[in-house]
Amino acid sequence: MSNTERRDVAVPAVLKGRVAWIFGDDFDIDLVIGVKNIKSYDPVHLKSVCMTAYDTDFIRDVRPGDIIVGGRNFGYGHPHYPAMIALRNAGITAVIAESFAPGYWRGEIYQGMPLVTVRGIADAVSRWDDIEVDWRAARVTLPATGKVLEGNPLSAHAIDVIEAGGGFNLLLKEHGPQARSRRDTSFSTNA
Amino acid sequence: MGSTITEKILARAGGLEIARAGENAPFRPDYMIAYDFPGYTDVMFKQMADDFGISKVDDPQRYVLFIDHMTTRGGEREETIHKVTRDWGRTNGVEVHEGKGIGHQVAAELGYALPGKFLVHFDGHISGLGAFGALGWGVRKDLLEAWVTGAVYLDVPASSRFQLEGRFGPGVDNRDLIHHIIAEIGADGCAHQVMEYAGPGAEAMTIDRRQGLCAMAMFTGAVSAIFNPDELSLAYANRVARAEFEPLYSDPDAEYVAKYTIDLDALSPQVVLPGSAKSSNTHPVEDLVGTPIQHAYIGSCASGRIEEIRAAAGILKGKKVAHGVRLNVVPTSERIYQQAEDEGLLTILAEAGAHVAKSSCDFCVGYASPLQPGDKCISTGVLNISGRMGSTDAEIYMGSAYTVAASALAGKIADPREVVEL
Fold first, then answer.
1. Residue of B55, B84, B142, B395 to mutate for A, most A C-beta atoms under 10 A
2. Average pLDDT along chain B
């Protein structure tokens, strides 16, 4: 919880990148960095261990804007934040999965990461395929084939959270001192 | 179409006429609970003051703090962490419960978990309070939203109904039931839903068993679990209530994603392989009998109830824990510790060579009595991922208190039905 991120860059309406990795069902996100490292918040260390169990060249090959794909129940287990911090630092901008585990879902939406639930995604893509994601509408386009996959759109609130750059930023925007003083000015008779 | 108990609790908490599964809205919890932990509560206290200008909360009776982690080593670091919590509680008029045991269960003893109430925590094992017809939901970092605004945005969950028939046989309990359910429906079998337990087997189940069962809901992907209030839970609630409450019940025509029927008599002891509680890791004890262990643990927010202490004492009475095995028994609350002492159970356990400790979360997370590389442990703790109870090179099996006690006695994983008191 100590590493709340404050991001000022807006998330593009359509994310364009490549499929950097495809995980299987019930994937425990801690394995991205290995259980020995789940309490590390050191970006240099996290970078050095990120995905090395799967592909030692991952950090070299991944580009900003790439996304990762998961199977069913992505984020299962007892997800810790550093694994996704490592992936985010590596340039990953969204996760598309068949379905998400609730704890992971809530934790990462709070962090402002677009999570998109799309049935059939894991079988529809191969590694390094180009991919375009309209994350608000949960619509995935694969430019190579023109194939379009439709998923379950996010709630309006989840979209607000992601647009704000995470739950903390949204809370700050709506309930921070500036929001309060704006309200106090508008409704001064209530004071 | 009727409503589930979960929909009704959330409708009330959201000030809505009706709450339907799938709807997203802000809901006002009756209680917003946390245990103090570095990087969590200390950060939240600071954010409340520095980022949101809240130097004193408006309705302090809705905030609840427990000191139950990092209580066993003493020393300056622990003292520093807990002092921050005590100070914040004092400044804000918020109750801080310290030395009473594991908050997820003590919350019931202290009268927070009342039928119809909605409670949030950052930690998902708060679902155990569903035993009382309350809805406990672990909202992770969104607890800050609740603390700042008094409400938290949630998707109203659908429910699956588990109709329980029969009774647990000797040496079988709620722990075997939850692992049986996970094995049957999968680690996402109830994803984003609430598990609702009903039927004669649920009504006959003791409060202890209900708490342990509900506390493990997250391992089916559920956001919580709940029993409808009945004579047993209402009697408990009336005894401990710290506030008025109005029970809510599922309508007979409420809609469920799925309905399952489980015969408790047919259940057998289940053991979970190291790694996680997923289906493929869950085995009948017979498959693993004989696996050597060096460490055994009875306790956690999903265990350590008086019935489990009795189960362990029943198996170990007049016998000795196997040479080379360390058995830690940690009653889940101070009150249960006292009760176990009064019943003579702690003496029986101590004479058998078990280490009995005051209630704390520390054993489940490897902060107290950590596993060493190469250790194999059998545990009633809530997690068995690598490194959870100490070394990442140790292995954690999970099972019921019966199975843990029988295994500690044998020095290897054992079938408790062969040694349980009838």
1. B142
2. 97
Nearest residue to A18 (alpha-carbon basis) of A124, A138, A142: A142
At B207-252, the pLDDT tens digits run 999 999 999 999 999 999 999 999 999 999 999 999 999 999 999 9
With a CB cutoff of 8 Å and minimum separation 6, the contacts of A188 are none
Q: Count how many pairs of residues, chain A against chain B, have C-beta atoms within 8 Å.
A: 96
What are the chain B neighbours of A78 within 8 Å (beta carbons)?
383, 385
Residues forming CATH 3.30.499.10 domain(s) in chain B: 5-264, 271-418
**Shortest Cα–Cα distance, B2 to chain A (Å):** 24
Which residue type is seen at B376?
K
**Mean pLDDT (whole number) for A34-38:** 89
Residue-range definition of the domain harbouring residue A135? 14-153
Report whether B380 contacts B174 (CB < 8 A): no
Q: Has residue A4 been placed in a domain?
A: no
Pairwise CA distance, residues B174 & B192, whole Å? 22
Residue B153 has pLDDT above 80, yes or no: yes
Take residue A117 and report the two structure tokens written for it: 């639930």
> Do the domain assignments include residue A127?
yes
Chain segment B5-29, per-residue pLDDT in tens: 999 999 999 999 999 999 999 999 9
